[in-house]
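quick q for whoever's on today - can somebody do inverse folding on this one?? i tried earlier but teh output was garbage lol. tokens:
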């Protein structure tokens, strides 16, 4: 089958919020997703693609450099600094992919779990760079299902004075329900997702999904 004949299995909502960016939906990308959906095969390659796309949305300023030939090249440089913040524990599995692209990036961690009494996401732990308020934050969580954990994480970042427009949420797989809830809550955040699946089942798991990404990462 040629790539032109290849059927794309991604769910395509009629409209996406303007702050949602998806990776280009190529046959190569779907082949990579087929690999990571297989219960026996983890992969960092898509995470690196998501990080690269996230960097595309950072502001730049003009910069001149001298080339090895002695000529001057008028290029650009990133304006400001970045850090990564993972939503534990699944988001921690994306840190290696981030460091593959940004070797010296600073990292923070947020632990959010469901409160047994209220059923709502609850913050249990947060360790962020001291200067997080002055950085662009790449928020890491592989799955966007109901959106509860991601929304709580952004609330924590905003409590630490990170402007909403400086937060870029990177995730591997999302669903229409989670996208809608997250973007309605934080319209200034950018959401970069690799793939949009059909939706949630009765247990609020993404279908077809890829299971518990964090558990798979640390047990395979």
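ok took a stab at it. sequence:
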């Amino acid at each position: 089958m040629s790539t032109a004949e290849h059927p794309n299995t991604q769910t395509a909502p009629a409209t996406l919020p303007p702050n949602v960016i998806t990776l280009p939906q190529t046959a190569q990308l779907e082949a990579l997703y087929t690999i990571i959906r297989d219960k026996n095969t983890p992969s960092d390659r898509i995470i690196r693609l998501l990080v690269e796309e996230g960097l595309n949305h950072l502001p730049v300023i003009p910069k001149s450099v001298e080339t090895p030939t002695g000529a001057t090249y008028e290029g650009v440089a990133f304006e400001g600094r970045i850090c990564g913040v993972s939503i534990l524990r699944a988001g921690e599995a994306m840190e290696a992919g981030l460091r593959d692209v940004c070797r010296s990036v600073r990292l923070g961690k947020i632990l959010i779990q469901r409160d047994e009494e209220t059923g709502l996401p609850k913050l249990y732990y947060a360790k962020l760079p001291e200067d997080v308020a002055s950085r662009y934050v790449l928020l890491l969580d592989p799955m966007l299902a109901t959106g509860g954990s991601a929304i709580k994480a952004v609330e924590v970042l905003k409590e630490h004075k990170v402007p909403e427009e400086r937060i870029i949420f990177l995730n591997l797989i999302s669903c229409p329900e989670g996208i809608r809830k997250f973007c309605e809550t934080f319209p200034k955040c950018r959401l970069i997702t690799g793939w949009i699946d059909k939706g949630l089942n009765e247990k609020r798991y993404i279908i077809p999904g890829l299971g518990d990404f964090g558990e798979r990462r640390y047990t395979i």
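fwiw The longest helix spans residues 148-159. also The chain has a mean pLDDT of 87. so keep that in mind when u check it
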